[in-house]
Amino acid sequence: MRPVIPYVTAALLFGLGGYGVLRRRNAVLVLMAVELMLNAVNLILVTADTTVQLPHSGQVFALFVIVLAAAEIGVGLAIVLQLYRLRASVTVDDVPLDRPEGER
Amino acid sequence: MTGADVLLLALGAVAVGAGALVVGTRHLVRAGLWLVVCLGALAGDYLVLTAELVAWVQVLIYVGAVVVLLLFAVMLTRAPIGPSDDLDRPGWPAALVGGGSGLGLAVLLVDAFHWSRVDLPVAGTADRLGEQVFRSWVLPFEVLSVLLLAALVGAIVLSRPEIGRPGARSAGTPAGPGRPVGPRSDADPVRPAPAVAVGEEGA
C-alpha cells in the first residue's frame, strides 16, 4: 500500500472543503463543506494509523472526530434553523435585519 | 501497484470528484446527495486501510444521520427545487485559500512520503481499536459522552427559545389553539413560525 495516495486524497478534500466554506452563501452548504474538511482529517488519521505502526491511536481519534462532527452538526443546524425562523434567510454574508419575520 | 493501491486510487478519485461537486453544484439537494457519494467513497477507503469499525461508523453516523439531518435542514429552510443562482460569493479568494491549502498540503505530504510502500496490518479485527479506546483513551471517551449530552441539551434550548422565560408554562404548543394572549405574544419576536406566518398572510 502506498500511503501517499490516501494522503493526497485527504489534502485535496481539505482544500475543497476550505474552498466551499469561503465560497458558499447558504449556511447549510457551508456546513456541508465543513463536513468535507472533517472527513479529510479523518482520512489522514486513519492512514497515519496504518502507516505509522507504533501507537495505533489514529482510528480512535477518527472515531472521536466523527462524534465531534455529529455534535457540531446538531448545534449548527439548530442555529441555522433558528436564524431561518427569525429572519427567513440562511445566507451567511447578508442577514436581512430589517425584513419582517416570516416573509421571503 | 497492488490491488489495494488501485482501489485507493479509484475511491480517492470518486471522493475528490464528488467533493468538488458538493462545493460546486447549483442544486442544494444535489449537494447533499453528492456528499453521500463522497462519504461512501471515504468509507471504502477506510475498509481498504483495514479500519473496518471506523468505516461502518462512518456509514452509520455520517451517511445515515448527518446527511439526513442536512437534507432535513435543506427542506426546512425551503430551498428551491431547481438550480439557484445566488448560492455563491465571488470565487477568487475562496479558490486562492482552498487551492493553496489543498495543493500545499498535497505537496508537503508527497515530499514526506514519496512513493514509499507500507504493509497493511491484518484485516478483519477491531481488537487494536478496542484496546486503544478502553486502555489509553478511556477518559477522553467519557468526556466525549458528556460533550454529546451538552450538545444535545444546547440544541434543544436553542431551538426552543421560550425555555427559561418567566411565565412560559404553556409554551408547549406554539401557535396552537392554546396560544397565550397578552403582552407576550406581541412582544415575543421569536414566536411565529414562518410557515404559520405565511399561511396567515395568504388567507
Automatic annotation (TrEMBL), chain A:
Report whether Transmembrane shows up as a keyword of the record.
Answer: yes
Classification via Pfam families: Oxidored_q2
Per the record, membrane topology reads:
Multi-pass membrane protein
Keywords noted in UniProt:
Cell membrane, Membrane, NAD, Oxidoreductase, Quinone, Translocase, Transmembrane, Transmembrane helix, Transport
Enzyme Commission number(s) of this protein: 7.1.1.-
Top enzyme category: translocase
Catalytic function, reaction form: a quinone + NADH + 5 H(+)(in) = a quinol + NAD(+) + 4 H(+)(out)
According to the UniProt entry, its GO molecular function terms are: oxidoreductase activity
Q: Which residues cross the membrane?
A: 6-22, 29-48, 60-81
Its annotated compartments are: Cell membrane; Membrane
PANTHER family referenced in this protein's UniProt entry, alphabetically: NADH-UBIQUINONE OXIDOREDUCTASE CHAIN 4L, NADH-UBIQUINONE OXIDOREDUCTASE SUBUNIT ND4L
What family classification does the UniProt entry report for this protein? Belongs to the complex I subunit 4L family.
Q: What does this protein do?
A: NDH-1 shuttles electrons from NADH, via FMN and iron-sulfur (Fe-S) centers, to quinones in the respiratory chain. The immediate electron acceptor for the enzyme in this species is believed to be a menaquinone. Couples the redox reaction to proton translocation (for every two electrons transferred, four hydrogen ions are translocated across the cytoplasmic membrane), and thus conserves the redox energy in a proton gradient.
Q: How does it assemble?
A: NDH-1 is composed of 14 different subunits. Subunits NuoA, H, J, K, L, M, N constitute the membrane sector of the complex.
The protein here is known as NADH-quinone oxidoreductase subunit K
